Amino acid sequence: MTNEAPRRKQVLLRLDPKVHDALARWASDELRSANAQIEFLLRRALAEAGRLPDDARPIPRRGRPAKESPPPAE
Q1: What CA–CA distance (Å, rounded) separates 31 from 27?
Q2: Over 60: is that where the pLDDT of 47 sits?
Q3: Is-contact 23 38, C-beta < 8 A?
Q4: Residue 15: CB partners within 8 Å, gap ≥ 6?
Q5: pLDDT at res. 33
Q6: Per its UniProt entry, which superkingdom is the organism in (predicted)?
Q7: Over 80: is that where the pLDDT of 17 sits?
Q8: pTM listed for this prediction
Q9: How far is the CA of 68 from the CAs of 32, 65, 71, in angstroms?
């Protein structure tokens, strides 16, 4: 038995090309992939509707690690 995190579900999503283009531009503006933007929006909608499960895992962080703050000057 391994100690791996559960795999993420894969879904096929068909979108109007104009909707996809708008979504991709929005995602780019927020430095996300289109896929990450879709998950962000779905989670926000679920939370607003009171339907996001309490035990839903957070969206995995991608990209560069956050910069460390320099030590305070004395």
Answers
A1: 6
A2: yes
A3: yes
A4: 23
A5: 93
A6: Bacteria
A7: yes
A8: 0.70
A9: 22, 9, 9
